[in-house]
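User: My instructor asked us to take a sequence, write out its structure as tokens, and then describe one feature of it. I'm not sure where to start. Here is the sequence I was given:
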Amino acid sequence: MTKRLFDIVVAAAALVVAAPLLALIALFTRLGSPGPVIYRGRRVGLHGKLFAMLKFRTMVVNAESLGGSATAADDPRITPVGKFLRRYKLDELPQLLNVLAGEMSFVGPRPEVKKYVDMYTPEEKEILAVRPGITDWASIWNSNEAAVLEGSRDPEKTYEELIRPTKLALQLFYVRNHSLTVDLKILFHTAFKLISEDWVPKELKPYGRVRRYRMASETSA
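Assistant: Let's start with the prediction itself. The structure tokens for your sequence are:
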């Protein structure tokens, strides 16, 4: 109940404060490419319930039919305005509405597409026992997924091999050790990560750094 109250109060306050910025982003998104301002991505939430995760649209219309769910920095589906929004995570701001609606929390495992949830093992299904969030340990560990996937001829496969295993391990780590104190710590580290991309909290050091695709390819070669 304390966490839910925190989510409601902070999300409502953030929406009020960020209203001018949200309006400006909506305008540039509309002028930058044809299509709706808001993208509604189908994600799996608490207890396996599907919901529409909101984002400012950063890709061309019907991007799902032109490629997979994993998106590299050099993906041609990304619009010019979208590149900027993704770089600074501004496309995620509409998820404050998901938080207010109770579909998401500020902190929790990032919601996944159904394709990957269907691949969960019985152990990994524990992730669905908590409300998904805007940020978590895995989001800090892999704060720039698009850059990691850049250069890959098969971003979906690269995601599954380089990112997904550690992402699931960190999400399970959160589910089994979450508390309000942990949530506040994750929010602090998330803010710090936006300022210093090389920042690695002590909790994440055992998991190492996420390897970029090209580096991993050169090493294996």
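For the description part of your assignment, you could build on this observation: The beta strands are 38-44, 50-56, 105-107, 133-135. Try explaining in your own words what that tells you about the chain.
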